[in-house]
């Protein structure tokens, strides 16, 4: 008898994506998944409370119009038709892969970068290929030379785990030589000095994704979006679930986009902490990659990164230990509050005394 549970071969073959550890709320100092250490804007909490007394027996706006208006205003875009709202930017990334990459086609990503892109290709039954960053975290011109079977290219900018940025000029140059869309994943762009939204207006094949999980402090709410030319938004809109964003999250995200002053304030505070922690890590002998995101990638000449991760964890501090085959390993430490970072640095200092 045939197996009644016979999955698509692509699914049986693939390894699942492993998200960062999410310990129960409590004593752990959480510096492992680049969340905002500060609570969200009180106006956002108020908007959720108000929405909770609204008509929850009804379906939400299927295309989150209020949010898209607020986002278009905040970003200086012509209108809501340039934006597709999603249940986290991870849903947007899924929609992009489903929209552009068929079975036996490929997506391309830089290496090392965000591992989830590979998982999305695996689910789709598509292939992926990686192009290594060069020294100094630049990409070779070959990154932009796309053969026919490469149907989508992902570029996290700022990149994770490095926190490094390619300039908009460089992104434009790479996209110009591509024969497919370039997705600039700007999950961390609010912490950097520039972004690629303006390029979307000029080039139909440049697509930008954003999230409210990091800079806006709303990882628990699940909201992200795509910025692209209107014809791209309407094609990809066919793929999403009918009601992919719920009433509470739409209310939260709309309020969040409407207070850009709050954002500027929290970003300034976190960037100051990043500056300070980078300096102190360097004093402890770490090799610190200059970051434009809300985390720092660092390695130590002693090479004991995994042991440092374990030692921090034993002391209730959770950072991300990452190991990239054929490339190397290190620690990615999220920007926390000043007190959290001081605690982390103190434990690292005590570890290094015994090295
Ligand atoms: C955190 C992160 C995201 C995911 O954001 P969500 O909106 O929470 O799904 C996307 N891309 C990169 C590079 C990230 O680090």
Automatic annotation (TrEMBL):
HAMAP family according to UniProt: HisC_aminotrans_2 (MF_01023)
Keyword Amino-acid biosynthesis: yes
Gene that this polypeptide is encoded by: hisC
Assembly information from the UniProt record: Homodimer.
Modified residues (N6-(pyridoxal phosphate)lysine): 214
Highest taxon in the source lineage: Bacteria
PROSITE patterns in UniProt: AA_TRANSFER_CLASS_2
Cofactor(s) of this protein: pyridoxal 5'-phosphate
Transferase listed as a keyword: yes
InterPro entries tied to this protein: Aminotrans_II_pyridoxalP_BS, Aminotransferase_I/II_large, HisP_aminotrans, PyrdxlP-dep_Trfase, PyrdxlP-dep_Trfase_major, PyrdxlP-dep_Trfase_small
EC numbers for this chain: 2.6.1.9
Example GO biological process: L-histidine biosynthetic process
The protein's annotated pathway: Amino-acid biosynthesis; L-histidine biosynthesis; L-histidine from 5-phospho-alpha-D-ribose 1-diphosphate: step 7/9
Entries under NCBIfam families matching the protein: hisC
Region (Disordered) residue spans: 1-29
Identification of the protein by name: Histidinol-phosphate aminotransferase
GO molecular function, one term: pyridoxal phosphate binding
Organism (species): Novipirellula aureliae
Domain (Aminotransferase class I/classII large) ranges: 28-343
Pfam families reported for this sequence: Aminotran_1_2 (PF00155)
Gene3D superfamilies, per the entry: Aspartate Aminotransferase, domain 1 (3.90.1150.10), Type I PLP-dependent aspartate aminotransferase-like (Major domain) (3.40.640.10)
Catalytic activity field: L-histidinol phosphate + 2-oxoglutarate = 3-(imidazol-4-yl)-2-oxopropyl phosphate + L-glutamate
Family that this chain belongs to: Belongs to the class-II pyridoxal-phosphate-dependent aminotransferase family. Histidinol-phosphate aminotransferase subfamily.
Class of this enzyme: transferase
Protein keywords: Amino-acid biosynthesis, Aminotransferase, Histidine biosynthesis, Pyridoxal phosphate, Transferase
């Amino acid at each position: 008898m045939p197996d009644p549970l016979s999955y698509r071969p692509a699914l049986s073959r693939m390894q699942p994506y492993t998200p960062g550890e999410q310990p129960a709320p409590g004593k752990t100092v959480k510096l492992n998944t680049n969340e905002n250490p500060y609570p969200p804007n009180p106006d956002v909490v108020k908007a959720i409370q108000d929405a909770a007394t609204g008509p929850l027996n009804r379906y939400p706006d299927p295309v989150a119009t209020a949010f898209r208006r607020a986002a278009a205003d905040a970003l200086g875009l012509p209108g809501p038709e340039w934006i597709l709202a999603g249940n986290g930017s991870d849903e947007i990334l899924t929609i992009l892969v489903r929209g552009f990459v068929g079975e036996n086609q490929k997506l391309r990503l830089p290496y090392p970068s965000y591992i989830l892109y590979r998982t999305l290709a695996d689910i789709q039954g598509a292939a992926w290929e990686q192009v290594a960053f060069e020294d100094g975290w630049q990409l070779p011109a070959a990154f932009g030379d796309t053969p026919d079977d490469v149907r989508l290219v992902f570029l996290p900018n700022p990149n994770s785990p490095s926190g490094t940025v390619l300039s908009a000029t460089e992104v434009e140059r790479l996209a110009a030589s591509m024969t497919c869309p370039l997705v600039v994943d700007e999950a961390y762009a609010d912490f950097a000095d520039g972004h690629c939204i303006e390029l979307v207006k000029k080039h139909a094949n440049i697509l930008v994704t954003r999230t409210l999980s990091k800079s806006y402090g709303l990882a628990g709410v699940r909201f992200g979006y795509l910025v692209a030319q209107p014809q791209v938004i309407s094609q990809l809109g066919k793929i999403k679930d009918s009601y992919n964003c719920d009433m509470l999250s739409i209310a939260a995200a709309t309020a969040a986009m409407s207070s850009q002053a709050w954002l500027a304030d929290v970003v300034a505070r976190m960037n100051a902490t990043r500056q300070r922690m980078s300096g102190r890590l360097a004093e402890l002998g770490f090799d610190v990659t200059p970051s434009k995101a809300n985390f720092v990638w660092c390695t130590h000449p002693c090479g004991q990164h995994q042991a440092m991760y374990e030692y921090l964890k034993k002391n209730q501090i959770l950072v991300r230990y990452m190991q990239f085959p054929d490339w190397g390993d290190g620690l990615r430490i999220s920007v926390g509050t000043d007190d959290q970072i001081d605690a982390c640095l103190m434990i690292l200092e005590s570890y290094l005394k015994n090295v």
